[in-house]
Amino acid sequence: MFSLFLGYLGIQCSAGQELVVNGDFENGATGWSIWIPDESQDKNCRFDVVSDSPHGGTSCARMQSDDFARFSIGSGATGFPVQPGDHYRVSVWVKADAAAQIRSKSPGFVIRFNLRHGNQDAEGGHLLIELGDHVARNVPADDVSKLPKKWTKVEAVVEIPAGVDTVVPSLFSWWIKGTLFVDDFSVQKVEASTPVTPVSENSSAPASASGAASNQPPPNIPATGPITSDTDLLAALNLDSPGMQDVKTATQASGGVDWNAVQKAYLNYRRNASPARWKFMPTEKPAQPREKDDALGDEVMAHHIRNGYGFQPAGADMGKDFNWTFNPVPRSDPSYSDEWTYCNVSRTEFWQPLANAYWQTGNEKYAQEWVAQLKDFALKNPMHYVPVPGVPSLWRTLDAAERISISWPNCYYHFLLSPSFGPDANWLYLKLNYEHAQLLLQGLNDPGRTGNWVATECGALYTIGTLFPEFRDAASWRQTAIDRISKELDHVVPPDGFETELTPTYHFVALTGYRQPLEMAKLNNLTVPDSFLTRIMGMYRAPVLVMDQSGHAVPTNDSTPVDIVNKAREGLQLADDPLLTWAASHGKQGQAPPDSDALPYAGFYAMRGGWARNDAFLFFRAGPTGTGHDHESKLEIVLRAWNKTLLFEPGTYTYDQSDWRRFTINTPSHSTIIVDDKWQHAGKNIPPVTEPTGNPWVTSPLFDYVAGTYDAGYQANTYRPRPFYPEVWKGVPDKSVSHTRRVLFLRPYYALVLDTLDGTQDNKAGQHAINGGWAFQKAEITDSSLPHVLLIGDSIVGGYKNGVIAALQGKANVDVWTTPKHVGDGSLNMELEQNLKNGPYAVIHFNESGLHAWQPGRIPQGKYGPYMEEYLKIMKAGAPQSKLIWATTTPVTVQGHPGQLDSLDKLISDRNATCVPIMQANGIAIDDLHQVMMSHLDLALGDRWHWNQAGFELLAKTVTDSIQAALAP
Q1: What pLDDT is attached to residue 411?
Q2: Pairwise pLDDT comparison (697 vs 308), residue with the higher score
Q3: Over 60: is that where the pLDDT of 201 sits?
Q4: Which of 117, 434, 663, 708 matches a 20 to 30 Å C-alpha distance to 618?
């Protein structure tokens, strides 16, 4: 994790030489970055440099998380070269704040020395230096009950073990909730005679031969190939299983185990005697080939894989020597995502075209390619439990569970009878399944994990235990999966049936994991608890109650608009259900749900004028954010009518590190309210599973009524490129404002939405700016020959835009971009650059949201002009042929007293005056809306900022006249 430049340049380190760059943080965060593993991505882990009582100098690092999390900080990933036997003194000062907590049986804080040999982890795992100056190998050996609340030094002298040529250090907050401070991190080489801190006994132990003893990572992970030996694999098998007699006989040869005979006999068992049944069997292969070649199969043979998850690009060539961790997008690109590797590569869905091609053509080249890639995967990607920081792992439990549940068994049963799939390949496949089981057991042994990952892992473990009943522990694996699913259903599926991530896509991901044992048990004559089916059918029913008339779920949180009709058909494969029958038949059969309904634990409310496509549909979200994949969108409304979406939920965005991802997952992209340019920040929270949310909900033949309140606080959010959540929350949440939204749906046509904001929470009172409805609105183009015009501004533009659009009808197509961002907001220019791509525009009429920059500190003294010049550079570069018109910011009036000028207007006037010479120097026309409204202060609305209908009509006419003048030949 650290860029230790001496090592990178190949310079030998001498004794006493400091290897950490900026270890005292006196140069701020220069060179430092954060690494967050997947299990902590939703904990709001963050890192900054502060001046809060540092140990030395003026600065220290602050590591924070909203929940118990494991993450690290460092700078770079090159490490430094070492030689076995070298001694290094490693130290850092650390303290936690008073509110910090540590999860039970956790080390709390760790300096980790990642030990490398070439491009792989060295055997034996990493060195870990813990609180109390303890050193462990591979897995932390000590649990800490208390964190130090004053500066405490962690120090040890470590010796580089054999087989290590590179060290990469990192500082870990290890299952801490709250704030941890670190300072003065040092790594120095010392003389070989310096005594070494003893290494504690490792708390981990290798998995037993039967796989049941410990489920902990093996202490020695080889650099290549499967980690399970032939001997251990054989010991994990029950050779007395029906049909395994020949395998047992081969182990009793006079000269010892005849491994060739074992593998040959085991393949024969799998082909002819195994009782296991998959969703299809090898004997179903078409007797006669239907095609000569297969284009998709040939693509995979050429090592070209396609992207099925929406990440960029659409596909990639993985190289002649298949590079399993290759990502075609540079890490510095905003569209970069580790998920490209996790989803498109690790889940090996690209293998299925090979399987399909083999059955369609009968051509052995496809079987040969699959066998070659299977062996290559095993050789280059040995199973490991703890990922290497900064390196995408092909052994994330979620991806391992996905592939072992779908693509691997699908391919196995396609190729099992192929002459190209020999005894060695079959034995390798068995090893890898055994290792998958060990990995999944390791993850499921942590009771703190939950959600769709655990559901998928349970389904995968049950699948292995079903398809390979010859393993001694197969029945135990199945029971582990069943027991954990039972607990999960109680923990994350409340009585209304919607999984607590409150994300339709992941609701069904979890559901797939839960139903997998049902399907596998039915195929293989096994039994599962009756309660499973009841709970799972409830999960299928819940989305039907709140779907729209097209049969799709509103894509709350990181979801796509899931087709609930198809999911209802999927549920009917398990059991009959009148509600699912109604949905699956498009209302022709079964029992219809009410026109309006609610999921009171999820806080989802669906109001409908009827079930016809043209009927009105209003969805209101007034519950918690959920346990994962959360968006800050409480009190949002989705509205459909006449089979058109009028107010929408954007759903998910690619899991990249772009500012568009930040925008999509937060308040600005949802139909709720922003306060003082701050967004909702409730953070991940757990929905109630025993009590409803308590929101009032009334449904009747005449009307529906619901209300909800958001009071968890508003917080400033800025862009920071990192995966999943590319943002930084600044300051503390402002909880002085609460927002209550009441929705009255008058059947079947009308909806009334009443918003009340209370600024006196926490016994505080003050003035606040309320923002909402920010969006880019494209023109409905009926005549593409008309000139294209763009309006840019804040809620003032929102007030006059309709008048301008109406006045220019038949004369111009008008796009409107309403934004609360001002030139001091670093992301404004990025959005401007992107939005200008909707052109080209003949005319751009703009104001840069000057009313949103009045609070002290938002625009540093003397920076308004330079910021505006930078903004203009972006605009002129993105719209070089456009005629530009700058609108001055309108006056500010006294709240409650239209006609009186507020003292704040001096700042607005000064900023307008700053911009005038800049516009003149750039040849930009000026539309002086401030001067226009100074003569009509009586048209002010009375809220300081806005204007009544007559005022906005006057502004619309003024703006229209300016645009028409610019359009004139």
Answers
A1: 98
A2: 697
A3: no
A4: 663
- Tracing tokens 């199969």 back to the chain, one arrives at 297
What are the backbone dihedrals phi and psi of residue 795, each rounded to the nearest 5 degrees, phi first? Answer: -70, -15
The angle formed by the CA atoms of residues 756, 759 and 761, to the nearest 5 degrees, is 110
pLDDT of residue 3: 33
Q: How far is CA 121 from the centre of its chain?
A: 27
- Comparing 67 with 277, the larger pLDDT belongs to 277
CA distance 911 to 315: 49
Q: Determine how many CB atoms are found less than 10 A away from the CB of residue 308.
A: 13
Q: Tell me the per-residue pLDDT of 763-776, one tens digit each, with 9 for 90 and over.
A: 666 667 676 556 67
pLDDT above 70 covers a percentage of the chain that reads 93
Number of helices (H) and strands (E), helices first, in the chain? 24, 36
Helix ranges (DSSP H) in 445-577: 452-467, 474-492, 504-523, 530-546, 564-572
Would you call 917 helix, strand, or coil by DSSP? helix
Q: Return d(Cα 173, Cα 485) in angstroms, integer.
A: 30
Edge-to-edge strand ranges of the sheet holding 714-719: 679-680, 714-719, 727-734
Residue 340 sits at φ, ψ, to 5 deg, of: -60, -45
Residue 843 is encoded by which pair of tokens? 């005319």
The alpha carbon dihedral of 283, 286, 291, 294 has a sign of negative
Query: Are 934 and 890 a contacting pair, CB within 8 Å?
Result: no
Q: Are 144 and 58 in contact (CB under 8 A)?
A: no
Residue range 49-65: mean pLDDT, rounded: 91
Looking at residue 534, the DSSP 8-state letter turns out to be H
* pLDDT confidence tier of residue 13, bands split at 50, 70 and 90: low
Distance CA 230, CA 218 (A): 15
Rounded to an integer, what distance in angstroms lies between the CA atom of residue 884 and that of residue 963?
9
Angle (CA) 785-789-795 rounded to 5° is 145
Residue type, 304: H
Structure token digits, residue 127? 């060195």
CB contact set of 200 (below 8 Å; sequence gap of 6+): 134, 135, 136, 141, 142
- Positive or negative torsion for Cα 531, 535, 536, 537: positive
